[in-house]
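Incident log, entry 3
Record: WD repeat-containing protein 76 (434 residues)
Problem: checksum mismatch between cached and fresh output.
Input:
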Amino acid sequence: DGFSQLSAYERKRLKNITENAKFFASLKLHEVSARLQKIANKVQPHVTKRARPRKAEDEPVRRRSMRLQRAERPAPPRSRGSAAHTGKLPVSFQPQVPPGPVSMLPEDQKENSKVTEEFLAMWTRISEMKPDDAQKHSRDMERYAASLGSMTLHAGDVSKVVKARVCSMAIHPAESAVLVAAGDKLGHVGLWNVDCETEQATHVFIPHNYPVSCMHFSPANPAHLVSLSYDSLRCGDVTRAVFDEICRSEESFSSFDFLEENASTLIVGQWDGAVALVDVRTPGTSAELSANIDFKRTRTVHVHPVNKQYFLAAGALYVPHQPALCCALSAPFAPEKYLSLSFSPLLFFFQRHNNNTGRWLTRFRAIWDPKQEDCFVVGSMARPRQIEIYQDTGKLLHSFYNVDYLGSVCSINVVHPTRNILVGGNSSGRLHVF
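Fresh output:
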């Protein structure tokens, strides 16, 4: 009656609200709720606190193989000993060695020391001595085989010369001392005076930023050590204690060889398939000319030992279904023969040979023995670990092994031009001298 001013609809709505309120009050729901709460307080279930989930950054990183991830293996970057080469330097490795000359100081030294000076003086001294040319001629096979059997390996003939995987080696031609140089995948160049029995026998320099894929003592002046990395070609001159920069390029160098006995010109292979001519007498660090030889990649180049106007290149071609002959790893010359080595198990006259070094070992690089031009040296995957010498007929002539002091694969090997000395380098930076 107090709401006569309201419309009929609003009066009916208020009546419904009042009746609903009386109905819920009659149910006494507040009392039921209070009783249920009292029961719940008496019987309290044991509740285990849920562990807080870890954040993604707190989780340890689990290493999973590409096979378990069902993913294709990505092509490795063309850097520091990897197999893929695309012509561009990797972004992940920023250059540390600047362009231009680099002082010949060991990596752990900031200034000259007496030990370093004595080592450089020794290198200079033995470079002034000329080897006896009369001993360079090939011997008969029986005498040669006997000399191989007399070569041994002892505890003092093994040394870790560089930090990382050996990618190239060179041996000084002196007969009065044994000086070996090794280049690794980090751009380091290590020199080992094998005759020195003290801790100062090895000296490591850093003339490059990337793997040292090729290295030779100059045939005209062994006081010069020429080394090549992806982006630079340098000449280490011991008389001036400096690594001069001969040539620089972004095309990614792969190998080189001397075109003349005076070592004034060089032929340089490039990973983009071309070859370049470099003259060390001209100013600047650019090649004189380059030529496309229709290779996908040019891995090695070697100049004929007699007819210097000819060179041999080995690499990969754009030829489908023919990887065996197109992916040669090494092709040094004997005057009338050449030697090629590929991923397939074929080695010289189709002799079967296990060349599958895998991803973590430096690829095999076969070399001719300069003392016996019809025999060559190559690494081996056989056990016990060994270095093998073959005749050009494919016959295995000798295997160098020592179960006590040689327990790894020597992918890179070098032979002294006049003495019975063989040096093998492995993928941990260690050299073995037979």
